[in-house]
Amino acid sequence: MADVTNLRTPAEAGLTKLFEVARMKFPTGVSIAREEAFRYFEAVGLPSRRVEAFKYTDLRAALTEAAPPAEAPPADAARAALGAAKGFSGIEAVRLAFVNGHLVAEGSDLGSVPQGVTVTPLEAALTKNDPLLAQLAPVAQTRENPIYQLNAAFMADGALIRVAAGAKVAMPLHLRFVGTGSDAFSTATRVLVVLEEEAELTLLETHEGPDGVAYQPNDVLDVVIGDRARFHHTRLNGEGREAVALSTISARLGAESHIETVNLVTGAVLSRHQIYLHFVGENATATVNGATMLGNGQLADSTLLADHAAVGGVSRELFKTVIDGDATGVFQGKIIVEQVAQQTDGKMKSDCLLLTDEGQMMNKPELEIFADDVACGHGATCGAPDEDLLFYLMARGLPRQQAESLLVQAFLGEAVEAVTHEGARAALIGEVEAWLARRGSAMSPSPDPGGGATGVTRKSS
Predict the structure, then answer these.
(1) What is d(CA 247, CA 262) in angstroms, rounded to the nearest whole number?
(2) Which is nearest to 175 in space by CA: 211, 208, 129?
(3) How far apart are CA 200 and CA 295, in angstroms?
(4) What is the pTM of this model?
(5) Residue 165 has pLDDT above 60, yes or no
(6) In 127, 387, 395, 449, which residue has its Cα 20 to 30 A from 365's Cα atom?
(7) 44-62 pLDDT, tens digit each
């Protein structure tokens, strides 16, 4: 039987043209294989439903055209965009500001970097071929991912962050990614964090942009965690309503190291957040949580791969999704336990709360185990708010909308509570409350059939 070859879409053809033009502008280091990355992407194309890992998130259909890479914005536009950004703004932190994918030195605290931390803008690192660039792409599986390779081909700016051995950085670093403009644009940023032995760092990350603009961010965070080092990461996706937002975090864990990463999603019409973990040192631990709140027309995909390749690794993954209107949630998680990774303990769960009958949730948890001394498990649940709990709250005077909001907050709280940094945890709780407030204001008040304060009717069992 003859091979079937997909015709190139306008978006794929547009990306090829954009790459041929942009490649002449990009600084090139010997450790950065832009050409190979794009040729890989060109060979496989935008992933469609035919690709198992993208079965529920068809980028080939979603991306109808390729937006051009954004130019660095004028200084006044950058200042205005950063001034309007609210994510984690109340938290004291050392900030690195990126507007339309370009580092804005005037909006960053490059002169206030804590002792033990070195920050190098990616553009400068590429120009001088910084040795730290050799540690990009720390997880091998990412090199077979078209989204990741597309970032590698187009990445224009970002940062290299190195934390010296033994440094315990008290002040968090805040990566502020802000989009601005009225025409469609794309960005491709890459941040590399290298924590040497026994180092500790808290990294906050926010993504915000304009509504009404179909921009296309593709952001990657690479993390190399040395032996006995600890990395705390909190991420907020507050992208504009029409954005198609792609993001990846890849992390290599050394012996007795720890990673905590929590991602909260409210923005973008389509988002896909990919998490790759590679346990290469013994007794490494990971906490990976997600909290997603979606409304009409949105699709959010959380995809996880945890590859245990050393003895005694422990991973805990918990993803909570709230679906309103006709939104779609996707969770794909796989725990791989290599034959050498005896005494691995991996637990993965995805829970979904459906607030309407029109929404849908796609869950696909997987285990791939080649060792015999392990304790691994996965699970998934999906359902509507508990009517008994709603009745209990409404019978005490709460309107149904407020009672439902309390249940949603409690549902998402389990995922958010994993955030170690108190200020970041409070900020995420505030984002949950703000989403519920917006949802409440968009809903018309329900009539009170009983004429009383609550209109509660208890169904007989």
Answers:
(1) 13
(2) 208
(3) 37
(4) 0.93
(5) yes
(6) 387
(7) 999 999 999 999 999 999 9
